[in-house]
Amino acid sequence: MAGYIRLRQICLVAPQLEPVIGDISSIMGLDVCYRDGNVAKYGLENALLPVDTILLEVVAPTKPDTAAQRFMDKTLGRGGYMAIFCCDDPDQRGRAANAMGVRTANVIDHPPYHGVQLHPRDCRAAFIEFNHTDGSDDVLGPIRRRDRTGKNRSARM
To answer: How does DSSP classify residue 1?
Structure first.
């Protein structure tokens, strides 16, 4: 399969964002660079922290019976929740996974973002997502360019 693929983000799940985000920030010397309000439709809240060219995300359920809560119950709160890879063609990667018997769990399409999430039961682990954002070929990307006040330092965002 031609094209590129790179690890963009690792997502952990926690019962609440705090004290997890505060602890990670203190231990690793990282600042939250972004909070994505779009995760609310899945009954979650989140915070992202930049680690070089990769994002570390922590999500926490805000409603009962979310996929994240079920994952925590199943794993006794241990393990990663998602591995997110950016690539040039998420749909092509999804079709290749489908051909191996891995179902698509969710397709996220809110331009300029497009993602294909694979079913964690078929992957026998956490969610795997392939995504692409128009203009995201810069490995540092616009999200990582926020300063400590949360203001965007990039004109591209």
So the answer is: -
